[in-house]
Amino acid sequence: MIRVLIADDHHVVRRGLLFFLKTQKDIEVIGEAQNGKEAVALTSELKPDIVLMDLVMPELDGIQATKRIKAKFPDTQVLMLTSFSDSDHVIPAIEAGAAGYQLKDIEPDELVTSIRRIMAGENTLHPQATTQLIKSREMQEDLPHMKHTLTPRERDVLAELTKGKSNREIASSLFVTEKTVKTHISNIFSKLEVQDRTQAALYAVKHGLTESSEQQ
């Protein structure tokens, strides 16, 4: 079972999420938080696998709550579920440690898929969030160095990872084994000094590393 905590200051939103998620055989909603401070407290108490986190909440916003949760409970994953798709919200959320970023207009089935993908260690970003990341090209001065640090195959894997593909899909696309993909991803994390696939994807779009070595 995937144990989920819902954090949103709107009762109607929490009720809607609870109603749908309860129909999923592999998902259990173990608690609800009305604000960021309560989300941190309930995470400490209940130890959920995933927190569905709103961004704008009283007492403590979703970004600050995510930072506290990831600092104390690194194994708990956070999926941002919000109405904001601008870079001022997307980038701080990912940098805070969110494993995914989805908008509240997401189809219910897609939300469940996102939860399962995050549980499987994959990143999940709404297309609008991805667009905002691509538009935000920061730290360009590090790009020449990073191109030489990553091997051509690692850049290929990173480009596929940024598209949100699973290890199996990357392996199929590049005609290698899943074990090889896992090794490349481990090397990428180490070289980029990131903790997960979402942060690696964020780094890639910031530095213009979203194309494979064959396209460059």
TrEMBL record:
Residue list for modification 4-aspartylphosphate: 54
Domain of life: Bacteria
Pfam families associated with the record: GerE, Response_reg
Boundaries of every HTH luxR-type domain copy: 143-208
Residue intervals of the Response regulatory domain: 3-119
Keyword Transcription (UniProt): yes
Protein name in the entry: LuxR family transcriptional regulator
Lineage per the UniProt record: Bacteria, Bacillati, Bacillota, Bacilli, Bacillales
